[in-house]
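Worked problem 6 (solution included).
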Amino acid sequence: MTLKLSETGKGRLYMVAAALLWGLAGVCVKSIPWNPMSIMAARSFFATIILALDKKSIKISRPTKHTMLGAVFQSLTSIFYITSIKLTTAATAIVLQYVAPILVFLFTIFVQKIKPKITETILVFIVFAGCFLSFADGLDLTRLLGNILGLASGFTFAAQIIACNDSRANPSDAMFICNIINLIVGLPFMFFDKEMCFTPSVIFWVVILGVFQYGLANACYAKGCQKVNKVEGSLILTLEPIFNPIPTWIVTGETMGPLALIGFFIVIGGVCTYGALPLIEERKKSSFSKLKTQ
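Solution. The predicted structure is:
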């Protein structure tokens, strides 16, 4: 007997993969001495190739408004987030970016007028609390500009999730357009970057950043984002800031504190619980139906 995943199940797996690959950003960016715009251009060069191979084409269908919005907001998220990592701690940058699930949740309530379930409301705030706990020791409020950019990336990330989740958007094209924008915007900075160097270590991290952290991650995100609802998708992506310290610890020896570990288990538990809710509700309905027929 073979186990066949539903489309929603496939979507969750793609989103988990995207979150874990995106979580490599901190260790990669910190290991590359270039300025943020040079890093963004190099990352987008490799990511564009990966996305073209995934699409099996470099053609872009006539983009809708939502596709273009998704591309622009993704591009802004990249600029804000990479610059934020350079100006403040990676932990601070990522935790500020992950105000996004709360913003997406508020959007569904106040703009789309979708009444949330009590369990959804509780889980959203539990996951956010876990994310905050994970990096509470790393918050450095003295690095104001980096913190502001990290927070700005949270708003643009939320807008990207909302735009790409819309059925009128083509997420694959949005990710492709985003990387072309980033490459064009960032390329000129490479010619004036005083820190530009091509040691084996730098080349290694640039390739990891472009091929895996962004190229494959964006491909997974494009495949999964429309298979799950906006709130669940944004919750699954909170695995990114939780995973982020692990490769950093492996490479640099930086350890996770007790709060980070507590946050890790809170977010993992919250995301898993949210994903299991439909199955739990379905079993309850099934059990209730059986009782009524007896």
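Discussion: Residues 18-293 form one domain.
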